[in-house]
Design goal:
Blueprint (H helix, E strand, L loop, with lengths): L6 H9 L4 E5 L6 H8 L4 E4 L3 H9 L1 H7 L4 E4 L7 H11 L6 E5 L5 H8 L4 E5 L18 H7 L3 H5 L4 H20 L5 H13 L3 E2 L2 H8 L3 H13 L3 E4 L15 E4 L2 H7 L5 H5 L4 H18 L7 E5 L5 E8 L2 E8 L10 H11 L6 E8 L5 E3 L2 E5 L10
Parallel strand pairs: 1-4, 1-5, 2-3, 3-4, 11-12, 12-14
Antiparallel strand pairs: 6-8, 7-8, 9-10, 10-11, 13-14
Helix pairs in contact: 3-4, 7-13, 10-11, 10-12, 11-12
């Protein structure tokens, strides 16, 4: 059964403006299902099978000529040579909504698109489900830790699958097939170990030297492997924010996984109750909040830049989001009881910002593990279920 996604309205709107749409995202995020549901009259060609790829390479003009009235090309990263011929076709006829391209990896694909289809395509990211999409899938979350444990991959929810089993199969497929295609990784076991170490560092600043040493690989290899995780849409890096703050700031980026269920699986957490008492539950919750904010923008066709802030000795803010002259500062706390201590760093940061000339307009939020929505000390406090009750724009 095809379920609606919030992303669909963005897709329809942009199809009226661009001749080509490119939808990227991790495997199993629902790209193909959604694109075929939104554009049921489009022809569909899957470039995953080898014979289909060979045909596309040998006769690209013939392939495109077969489908003049709308074509979905699935897994376009397998035949990037097609992009030049698509450019030729849309330069001859630039009518909007002609081609819809999907891809699970943008490692190298984004460069090819920028070269061939610059100005001709909108590039979008479809990620796993956000909490605001749960009602569309008939999901009524029992409690916070059930949500974090299951994660957001649509198939888990649509088919009522056990998260731990499905995610184990997903990880095996990702490591054994996709990593081999994306880059020349000499040791899959070493890469898997690196992936688990990254999961243990979610919501933490990235120290590539220490991460590489723990994984038994070089600093440069750690950097390259982290890029693989980014280009596969499994993680994001959030740079440090600074704007003429006098105190010394830590300027390492912070790492966030985009799916909390995958983090739980990588950390060996096998039930929601285990997560409730796990020492990294706060970090997993923070990354979940970051991913919800990221999805809020991504599924509306925008690319947010999430940031973080930490003084070497002093205040730190989990998530910052800057838009023009507005800055949203957000803290994430997994505790169910709203404590005054949760607001401490937001207060300190507000004082720092007040001392800056021409500082951006500051909004402060706390997302916590409870249920009540309150406003305290100029901070909007949102229970986890209310994370989308306020806009993140």
């Amino acid at each position: 059964m095809t379920r609606p996604r919030r992303f669909a309205s963005t897709l329809r709107e942009l199809a009226r403006q661009y001749p080509v749409l490119t939808v990227t995202g991790p495997r199993q995020s629902g790209k193909t299902t959604l694109c075929r549901a939104v554009f049921p009259d489009f022809a569909y060609v899957n470039l995953e099978p080898m014979d289909r790829r060979e045909f596309a390479r040998q006769d690209p003009r013939g392939l495109l000529a077969e489908y003049p009235d709308g074509l979905i090309l699935d897994e376009i990263q397998h035949v990037p040579e097609l992009l030049g011929y698509i450019q030729e076709a849309v330069d001859e006829d630039g009518a909007p909504g002609r081609y819809l391209l999907t891809g699970s990896q943008h490692f190298g694909l984004s460069a090819s698109i920028n070269q061939s289809l610059a100005g001709r395509t909108a590039v979008l990211q479809l990620l796993p489900l956000s909490l605001e999409e749960y009602p569309d899938f008939g999901i009524a979350p029992e409690h916070l830790f059930a949500v974090l444990f299951a994660g957001g991959y649509p198939r888990i929810h649509d088919r009522g699958l056990a998260p731990e089993r499905w995610l184990a199969d997903y990880l095996a497929t990702y490591v054994e097939r996709d990593v081999r295609q994306i880059a020349n990784v000499s040791s899959l076991s070493a890469f898997t170990n690196f992936l688990r170490l990254c999961a243990a560092h979610t919501a933490q600043e990235i120290n590539l030297s220490a991460l590489g040493a723990d994984a038994g690989i070089s600093h440069n290899t750690a950097r390259a492997w982290l890029s693989i995780l980014e280009t596969s849409f499994l993680v994001i890096q959030c740079p440090a924010w600074h704007r003429n703050i006098r105190k010394q700031l830590v300027k390492r980026p912070k790492l966030h996984f985009l799916d909390s269920g995958l983090v739980c699986h990588l950390l060996g957490i096998r039930t929601a109750d285990e997560l409730r008492h796990h020492p990294l539950r706060g970090a997993i919750f923070e990354s979940w909040v970051a991913s919800e904010i990221y999805k809020h923008h991504s599924h509306r066709g925008r690319r947010p830049e999430l940031l973080h802030y930490r003084e070497a000795r002093g205040a730190e803010i989990d998530i910052l989001l800057q838009s023009g002259n507005r800055l949203i500062a957000c803290e994430a706390k997994s505790g169910a009881t709203l404590q005054p201590d949760f607001l401490k760093h937001l207060g300190t940061f507000s004082e720092r910002m007040a001392s800056i000339s021409l500082a951006p307009k500051l909004s402060m939020r706390l997302v916590y593990g409870g249920d009540e929505k309150q406003r305290r000390a100029k901070v909007d406090c949102l229970g986890w279920r209310q994370v989308h009750d306020m806009p993140w724009d």
